[in-house]
Specification:
Length: 204
């Protein structure tokens, strides 16, 4: 039974959450984790060269295959991660969603659990709106949205960090200078484990 983790990351924060989701998903026996990145736009590659940080993160991700429609089709559960762009997902992730018409037509994603994670520059930069707006296409596809319940340690907090009931999250800082808090990574791990466990229960 496969759990697909598919993400996009420019400066590495969503990538760190993705690795934590992967670690959590792998703790469930009988689950094979497939790790993929959303395809990059060719136009953006030239832009990436202008940033030393973005170039380094881009190189780090070269060994990770791009997500294909077959990856989505073959997965029994999926966890999607995108950085926030103006309170919403990044265009590259939306493009991946928009390429799933053939899966939608055949109902091939229906009934599969789906979790979400994101990163913002600032505390109130839109972690919740990004997760919530990412849910809309997933509901159209018939997926079962899995959130992060408050029983997960670290979910009730008042400090400036991630962790929302709509999905795992972190704060990158205005210049991407921050790293995910340990609790952000723990919550991401818990989300990965939760999606794996629910998927296993549904399809075993
Ligand atoms: C065009 C653009 C729009 C952005 N919009 C937001 C936003 O609405 N809220 C916010 O907090 N950060 C915003 N950011 C910052 C990104 O969310 C931040 O760089 C990202 O979370 C870092 O994740 P990554 O390290 O995985 O790339 C924006 C960045 C860009 C380039």
């Amino acid at each position: 039974m496969k759990i697909l983790i598919v993400y996009y990351s420019r400066y590495g924060h969503v990538l760190q959450l993705a690795r934590a989701v992967e670690a959590g998903a792998k703790t469930v026996e009988g689950i094979e984790v497939v790790f993929r990145r959303a395809p990059e736009f060719p136009e953006v590659l030239k832009e990436l060269e202008k940033s030393e940080h973005a170039s380094r993160i881009w190189k780090e991700q070269q060994a990770t295959p791009e997500c294909s429609l077959d990856d989505l089709r073959e997965a029994s559960g999926v966890v999607f991660g995108s950085p926030t762009r103006f309170g919403n997902m990044i265009a590259q992730m939306k493009y991946l969603f928009d390429s799933t018409a053939s899966l939608w037509l055949k109902g091939e994603m229906e009934g599969k659990p789906a979790g979400l994670f994101t990163s913002t520059a600032s505390t109130h930069g839109g972690q919740e709106t990004t997760c919530l707006t990412m849910m809309a296409p997933l509901l159209h596809l018939g997926m079962l949205v899995v959130g992060v319940p408050y029983s997960i340690p670290g979910m009730i907090h008042v400090e400036a960090r991630g962790g929302t009931p709509y999905g795992a999250s972190t704060i990158a800082g205005a210049k991407a200078e921050l790293s995910p808090a340990p609790a952000d990574l723990e919550i991401a791990r818990a989300l990965g484990r939760r999606v794996s466990m629910i998927t296993k229960k549904l399809f075993s």
